[in-house]
Model the fold of this input.
Amino acid sequence: SAVISQKPSRDICQRGTSLTIQCQVDSQVTMMFWYRQQPGQSLTLIATANQGSEATYESGFVIDKFPISRPNLTFSTLTVSNMSPEDSSIYLCSVEGGTAYGYTFGSGTRLTVV
Amino acid sequence: AQSVTQLDSQVPVFEEAPVELRCNYSSSVSVYLFWYVQYPNQGLQLLLKYLSGSTLVESINGFEAEFNKSQTSFHLRKPSVHISDTAEYFCAVSGGGSNYKLTFGKGTLLTVNP
Done:
């Protein structure tokens, strides 16, 4: 299965600023996914990122708040813009390893907004 | 639409006792089912998955889960737990194909006490 490197692993940010999270995969993948895990909660899909096209956002998430880049088949970034304390969460990227492998997740970015 | 219900938010057990973490799903299409484990302050790791074939699937660390289509369940079991099994366990469902998105349950915190 794919190996994902995600960074930063954690950050503490001031409200009103933006943070860009990077996700690097060791193999080419068609789709990459970004999830949010709020404190004590399950994972919620933010968007699906395909290379060469606009990301597809889930209900409740918008591109202005969570812009995503997908410049090639092994890399993606998620930006959390104009942050507020409510954005404090763990953000995870994920790729589909083909149905034989299931989905692989990065180690996550633990974001605290103060 | 698909959904996952994990009936127990917390399950405390003593070391070497058996445990069952319950998961029920709903989906209008055929399903792929997954259990993920999240150890404290870490990302998600795939524990086991059901794609097709044998309804009983096993992990390398002694967990097993049985796909029961009539009960729409995918309960996770281990006959004897260790303190190191303390973690959050998430059940997830995917429809595969065009319905590839993972939908997660709310998670079950398994706490193994000495």
Remarks:
- The mean pLDDT of chain B is 91.
- Chain B is about 0% helix and 50% strand.
- Chain B touches chain A through 22 residues (CB under 8 Å).
- The radius of gyration of chain B is 14 Å.
